[in-house]
Amino acid sequence: MPLPNSFYTAQQVKQGEVQAAKAKGLEMFSLMERAGQAVFTIALAQYPSAHHWLVCCGGGNNGGDGYIAACLAKSMGHQVTVWQIGDPEKLKGDALTAYYHWLDHGGDVYPIDDRIPRDVDLILDGLMGTGLNGPVREPVSDVIDTINQSGKPVVAIDIPSGLSADTGAVLGKAVRAQHTISFIGLKQGLVTGEARNYVGKLHFAGLGVSESFDEQNIPTLKAIDSRVMKLFLPRRAASSHKGNHGKALLIGGNAGMGGAMMLSAQACSRVGCGLTAALVHPENTTAMLISAPEVMCAGWDDERLAQRLDWSVVIGLGPGLGRDEQSQHLFDVVTKSDKPKVVDADALFLLAHSPNYDDKRILTPHSAEAARLLGASVDLVEADRFKAVTALQQKYGGVVVLKGAGTLVCDGNETFVCLAGNPGMATGGMGDVLTGVITSLLAQGLTLFNAAKAGVLIHSQAADKDAELKGERGLLASDLLPHLRTLVN
């Protein structure tokens, strides 16, 4: 079942689930029972041969969900061991009721141990919930270490313990889960940054109240719709010609960096731009013409620059641009243009040193480039990617694409996340291809925001398609090119 497209803060879900349950005439304990049932069902489906389950419970409602799942597993004949942080008799509300429910089923509760029984073959993580906002402390941190070092598969209840539900940052330590089941409203921190290392496969259970919850709450984050190409690139008219599909100008490819422009220009053409031109360092023109004869390539002297700026409808600046005097000159000239722009790579370095605001451009920084643009550290950017992408947009204008695991796209009013992509994309040239893709979509008439969203998604989908065929390791930026063409069709 596909995940919902909307994401929320932890506080929204905490308050909204009460209202949603009330609207449906449900007691909160009924939601806990449904959550425990969902955890059991998904865990059983993923690990049908697991016979000994270890359920780790904390002091909150996640622990209560764990007790319900433990009851169901025990009733199915599984061996179930329950660990409880602290005194279970001090649990409160529905979690205490769930604990007594477990006792009524003949279950035992044990204090935490520093060793997991050897015959345990599945762990349920219900140690900590979405309310965590400070570093994990002992004894929970020790249990997290024990779980992570065990090598056993883990199913996390609502969120892997130790993750921030709002930012996805690891608060000291976090459980590495193979599967995570989130309830009622997906938490925005589950899908970007460090969280992608800990969540594993994300599942969703609405518990019968998600529609009511969605009606009452405005999402803080949305996923880029997988139907994006059908929405934004309709079928072309039979009588169309190349002039109908945009004129894109790409500028970069300094000495020794021509490959960046080759990748960007080919991506621009493969995604369907009618006419693509490239201005590069003169020593790279021959190689460009050989690798991409469809691209009108020339050296970047001032006369050609002026001609192509006047000719084009959109400009892509940065792939292999360099940081010398000529690069600065090109940057300065393009910055004065009022045409839509995509700014990446070395152009972002130059922008950081001479900041300006422009509502007609898309910036595509990775976390290190974002940190330079904000005058901050990479750690600070990754600690709250939502805050960082918003700050970039407010400072520089236009649309900002904050690349990385769970790439974010922000226009100042809305933020979207890309759920596609894989670790194989962590290789040189990927950003150059993305610049070409987005520039092409802009040239074909998409708005800044739609071009950024669509470009990010099909770029990641292309990488996923190739990784499915040949694996993630060794994935090259040029491997995306044939898949791009398939995706836009």
From TrEMBL:
Binds 1 potassium ion per subunit. Transmembrane segments: none annotated. This is Bifunctional NAD(P)H-hydrate repair enzyme. NCBIfam families: yjeF_cterm (TIGR00196), yjeF_nterm (TIGR00197). CDD domains: YXKO-related. The lineage of its organism: Bacteria, Pseudomonadati, Pseudomonadota, Gammaproteobacteria, Vibrionales. It comes from Vibrio tritonius. Gene3D superfamilies: 3.40.1190.20, YjeF N-terminal domain. It holds the Pfam family YjeF_N. The gene is nnrD. Homotetramer. (6S)-NADPHX binds at residues 61-65, 129-135, 158, 260, 320, 366, 432. K(+) binds at residues 62, 125, 161. Belongs to the NnrD/CARKD family. Belongs to the NnrE/AIBP family.
